[in-house]
Structure formats: C-alpha cells, structure tokens
Write a structure and sequence with these properties.
Elements (H helix, E strand, L loop, with lengths): L7 E7 L12 H14 L4 E6 L4 H7 L5 E4 L7 H4 L2 E5 L3 E8 L15 H14 L3 E7 L6 E2 L4 E5 H4 L10 H12 L3 E5 L16 E5 L2 E6 L6 H15 L9 E6 L4 E2 L2 H5 L15 E2 L7 E2 L3 E6 L5 H11 L4 E6 L1 H5 L9 E4 L7
Parallel strand pairs: 1-2, 2-3, 5-6, 8-9, 11-12, 16-17
Antiparallel strand pairs: 1-18, 4-5, 7-8, 10-11, 13-14, 15-16
Length: about 350
C-alpha cells in the first residue's frame, strides 16, 4: 500500500444526501463537498459517486472537470466504504476489499442498512478493471495510515474492537495487514480522539506525512480528556521505530475547539431509530489531522478561527512543496468526520507494468 503522500492518479468521493446524517437535506454539506472536490481537483482527477436520484443535482453543483458517476451508497464516507488501493511493480494497481459493518454493526454501528456501501468496492474494481482481493475482516480505510515503506499505524480501540472482529488478537490482525498490504510493522496507538464515533480511527489523531515523520493532534488543556489521549500516543510514538529501524519524528498539530453541535444544527437532522443521534451540545471529534494529501496540494479543514492559522502554518511546514488549501469543514464535521474521511486516493500505477 503506497503512502498517501506518494503520487496519485485520482481521488474518489461520494455525494452526501442522507438526511439523518446531514442537516437541512444535506444542502450545506453538499456545498462543503463541492469545495473539497474543487480543491483536490487542482492536484488530480476527482471522481464523485452519486445515487441516481441526486445525479443531476450533483452534476449541476460540481465543476465540469470533476467526473460524476452513478455509484449508489448508503452515505458519503468514501475513505471507509471505498477500496484500499495497493500496487505491484509488475502487475500494477489492485484493491483490497475489506468487510464493512457501518462502524460496529448492530453493536454500536452508526446506521442500518449498509448494503449499498458494501458493493462500492466491487463496482469500483469493475469500473477500473483491476483485481479485487477480499480480505475477510472488517476494517475501514480511516483506521490505518502507512508510510509506503513497510510501516502501518493504527489504534487498538478500533482494530481490536469486538464490534469489528470479535476475538481477534493483535497478532492475528498484524498477520492479515501484512498479507493484504505488504507491511512489515504495525505501530499500535491505544485509542483515537475523544468521542470519535468511529471507535478511534487513527486518521483523526495521527498520520504519516513523510517516511519516519508523523503528525499528531495535540491538546495542552489538562482538563480536556484529549490531553491524556494525545500523551499516550506520544509516548508510544517516541519509543517506536519504523519498519526500516528509524525513530519517528513527531510533529504536534494543535487541536481545534473543543467544538459542540449547536441547537440549530441539531434541529435540522432527521431522527431515525436506525441512525446515530446528533443532539445539541454533543461534543464533536474535531481534528486538523483529518486533511487530504494531494499531488500538489494539501486540503485541510477550517474548524476554529482561534486555531486555523496556526494549524495551517504547521501543515505548510510539513509540506513545503504543496499548496495548503483550507476549506470550511464544519458541515462535514457535523456528519461525524472530515476531509480525509470523505476522500480516498487512487495511487499512480507503476510505469513498468508488463
């Protein structure tokens, strides 16, 4: 599995419309998705999958150079329902097809059913004409980050959660990750961000920005539960080495907020018994780590005027050769994730395929 900071051929997204996730019929969220797609498209081809009943609306709202394809889904989290792409120097591009149970199935999952989401990987494999390998385990793309050189980072809270793969040990999961992704070492962080409804996806807490370089969401408020979480992660990272024996350089990225759902924001969401409740005053798992690394840009969420500029400066230092584009992303956060969660990179296939 190539690193996200390696070259891409495309970025895949889905179109939001689910009214029990996205407020006001998803209209504010759709604008945010348009902004993200437009920003990423400065760097690479963007393909947006849309349910049939929203095809014309999406085609009208998205710029002409962004591809819009009919690709049915239950919701719009392409990072988690889309494929994990892998490459081979002789055989080119392929994808891993993990099982998906909406972040916990009937034991804490965020909605039901998820039947359309489970077919997305098969459909994309058909569209691209690439091999698809069924992994046989539940895993979402946001639960892992790799350096492209044999190292994977994840959280125990998510990958070892009994609502994903009951009874699976760290050793069992490491064996599967090695076989499917070609990695040699897993760095296990204890848990993800506070109240992250994905059960602790690593892409909201920590990510690789270069070989042996990681960014970590950071909180200096000792009264905030996130304070302990990020220090637990830092302790692991500072003691860890990657698959090539290098010690990790950890860059701290300030945490926004804390941010909470407003009364007006909550009132615009449909209430269904089969979906995750979003109540006024609920804290959201806000993080600047949830950015997308494109070929020539980094698209980051703007979440908190008190911290946006500082976060942008840190990200610019981490990616001096890329242009940093900030997108107002509160509407995406209200749905439970952010920019990294709604995007999935398609790596550039090797040139010497034969």
């Amino acid at each position: 599995m190539p690193a996200e900071f390696a070259a891409h051929d495309a970025c895949w997204m889905l179109w939001p419309q689910r009214p029990d996730t996205w407020r006001l019929g998803a209209k504010p969220a759709q604008q945010a998705f348009v902004d993200v797609a437009t920003a990423v498209s400065e760097s690479e081809t963007v393909i947006v999958g849309v349910n049939d009943d929203q095809y014309e609306n999406a085609r009208y709202q998205l710029p002409d150079h962004i591809r819009v394809v009919e690709l049915s889904s239950n919701d719009a989290w392409m990072r988690d329902v889309g494929p994990t792409f892998v490459t081979h120097p002789q055989h080119g591009l392929a994808m891993i097809d993990w099982e998906f149970n909406a972040w916990g199935g009937l034991k804490g999952g965020l909605y039901f059913p998820w039947d359309k989401d489970r077919r997305i990987r098969t459909k994309i494999a058909e569209m691209l004409g690439v091999p698809r390998f069924e992994a046989g385990v539940v895993l979402e793309g946001g639960a892992i980050h790799v350096d492209g050189e044999g190292t994977l980072i994840t959280t125990e809270e998510c990958l070892l959660n009994p609502n994903r793969n009951p009874g699976m040990s760290r050793t069992d999961m490491e064996r599967i990750l090695s076989a499917q992704l070609g990695i040699d070492k897993v760095i296990w962080l204890p848990r993800g961000c506070y109240l992250d409804e994905t059960d602790g996806h690593v892409d909201n807490l920590c990510c690789f920005v270069a070989p042996a370089e990681v960014a970590l969401s950071w909180c200096d408020d000792s009264s905030d539960p996130q304070y302990v979480i990020c220090r637990e992660a830092l302790e692991v990272l500072e003691k860890a080495s990657d698959a090539r024996g290098r010690r990790l350089n950890v860059h701290r990225l300030p945490q926004p907020g804390p941010l909470y759902i407003g009364e007006d924001e909550s009132s615009g969401i449909d209430r269904l018994s089969s979906s995750h409740p979003r109540q006024p005053g609920d804290r959201m798992a806000a993080s600047y780590i949830n950015f997308y690394i494109g070929n020539s840009v980094v698209v980051m969420p703007l979440l908190d005027p008190a911290h946006d500029d500082e976060a942008r400066e840190v990200i610019q230092r981490l990616f001096p050769e890329r242009r940093i584009i900030g997108v107002n992303a509160r509407e995406i956060l209200l749905g439970g994730g952010n920019i990294h969660c709604i995007t999935q990179q398609q790596p550039r296939a090797p040139l010497n395929v034969g």
